[in-house]
Every structure is written in structure tokens, then in C-alpha cells.
Amino acid sequence: MSTNSFTSLVLTSTPPLTQHPAIVYLSTLSAGSKPTMKHSLNLIAQLLTDHQADHLTLNWSGLRYKHTNALRTALIQKYEPATVNRILCALRGVLKEALHSGLINPIDYARAVDIKSVKVSKELSGRVLSQDELDALMHTCFSDLTPAGFRDAALIAFLRGAGLRRSEVVQMELKDFHHPGEIKIHSSHPQVDRIVYLSKSAIAIVNDWIEIRTGTDGPLLCQVNKSGRVVHKRLTPQAVLFILHKRSEQSGIKPFSPHDLRRTFIWDLLNAGVDISTVQSLAGLSTPAITARYNHNLRTEDRSCPPRLG
Q1: What is the pLDDT at residue 209?
Q2: H helical segments located in 113-195
Q3: Phi and psi at residue 28, in whole multiples of 5°?
Q4: I want to staple 261 with a disulfide (CB 3.0 to 4.6 A). Which of 86, 127, 151, 159 is the partner?
Q5: Using an 8 Å Cβ cutoff, are 142 and 201 in contact?
Q6: Beta strands in 14-116 (DSSP E)
């Protein structure tokens, strides 16, 4: 997308929050989804205005097909199909609220949202990582002696070693991690808060990060700025995705999602013969049926069993 292509879309004054289509849209989302979709809306605003607007100052009702089609093209060049589709979903959600509020006429709305989702390859729809891939990932993190390297190793230890969701791992506080390796998880899913445990090697990885992070209260996994200084601000779910994409590229392995590390954790348990009810409890799955679906989907594919982290 050319620079300064749609800078006329920047609002000079913002409408009341109760009438702002982006605010209204975000208010309809769950607490777990809201940060990710807010990030998506900010990204849309930045791409359309060359970083001159955010989700509050973009004139959403002024978007037309030429804008949304150009946005889709720019996103395809920068992101994986699943990420593009999520961002387009956020775009459609805000435009729908603009339509309901009478801020955009039905014809302009219909044309603006008439953009196709990107086809997601079934090959990349979900997979289990091999032990060689996990080793390559950890080697990449261990080779990075900056605070980011220690943090990213701890992130992978939590996602792979405890099967956490992105929304769960970013919500962890320092006080939620107890010795020896006990973690209290506050799930985004109702009634599935749980206690999980890390292996000895994963505990060592997390402790190395905590030593660098220091014992200051706040999020367990936090930001590292460009100068390499630890900033005690919470990571976003989108930041987790970016970190894993970066580390997969550095490691030379096939792209994977944060949920693929969770799949690997669940596969490990199921392949070791752990009963479904126990797997359900450890993974924080809401029903046995969902656990059984993992069991069916993973076992219908020809996969080797990666051993536990550590």
C-alpha cells in the first residue's frame, strides 16, 4: 500500500464513545478476544493512513471498496492467511456497527465488505511439532543472550510444557508461578481455572527468565524494548504470535501457531496413554467431547510422538 494513500480517512474529531463503531464492536467481544481484535483494528488504521490514525481516529464510515480491497492486498503480502482473515473479520465487525448506527449507507457497506477471505491451506491448519523442531526452537532462543532470548524460551516452555493458550500465558502474573513449577492458570474459558506443573528442565528455563526479569510484581512474561531493557508491561496475544513467527524463521522450521504447541502438549499426553478426563483437566478443556475431538484428529494423521519438553 503506497504511503499517504488514504490519509483523508483520519478524523479531525472523534464521535462520542457510545456512537463510535470500533468501540461498540469491541464492547461485544469477550475479554479474551478484545485485545487481539483491538490490535487488529489499530493495524488496519495504521496501514490505511500510513500510521497517522489508530482505531479511534480512523474514519470507519468513510471506508469504501477501494480501501478495503487495498487493505486485503497489503495484508496478504505481510501475514499468514489465518491472521489476514482475523483482521478482515474485525474490519467487517466495525463496518457492521457503522451500518447499524446509520453512519454508512447500505450500498457502500455492502461494497466495502465484499472482499473474500483468504483460503487457508489445510496443511497449515494445525500440526504437532517434532522433537527436532522443538530442539531447533529452543537452541535459537538459547543462542540469543539478550533478555528477549530468555523470555522467548520461557514462553515456549509454557506453551509446550503446560499446553497453555495464548490468552492464558499473557495473563500470568509473577505471583501465579510457584515452586516447584506449579502454575495457577486463570482461563479465559469459564469454570476451567486450573493448576498445571512444568518439568524440571522447563522450570529451569522459567527461573532463568525470572532472574533477568527480577522479582517486581506484574506480568510474568513481559515486554523487552529495542534496547534490550525489560519493561514490566504485559505481552499481547498478537505479540506472542509475532514472537513465535520470528523464532520459527530463525530456526528454519515450518511456520506454526501458538495453538500448535498446545496440540503438541495434548498429543504427548494422549499418546502416553493418559486418560481423556485427566487430559481435559490439564489442558483446561471445557468438555470431554472437545478432548475426544483432539484425540480423533491427531490420531487420524501419521505423526511421530514428540517427547515432553524436558
Answers
A1: 94
A2: 131-143, 147-162, 166-171
A3: -85, -10
A4: 159
A5: no
A6: none
* Three cell numbers written together for 246: 520470528
How many Å separate Cα 272 from the centre of its chain?
A: 28
3-state SS class at 220: coil
Distance, in Å, from the CA atom of 292 to the CA atom of 201, rounded to the nearest integer, reads 29
Which of 14, 48, 115, 107 is CA-nearest to residue 99?
107
Q: Show the domain range for 192.
A: 132-256
Angle, nearest 10°, between helix axes 147-162 and 258-271?
40
* pTM tops 0.90: no
Do residue 186 and residue 92 come from a single domain?
no
Are 15 and 67 members of one domain? yes
The chain-wide mean pLDDT, for the chain, equals: 83
Which is it for the CA torsion 119, 289, 171, 166, positive or negative?
negative
Dig out the grid coordinates for 37 from the structure. Answer: 481484535
User: Where is the domain boundary, 95, 120, 145?
Assistant: 120
Amino acid code (one letter) for 79: Y
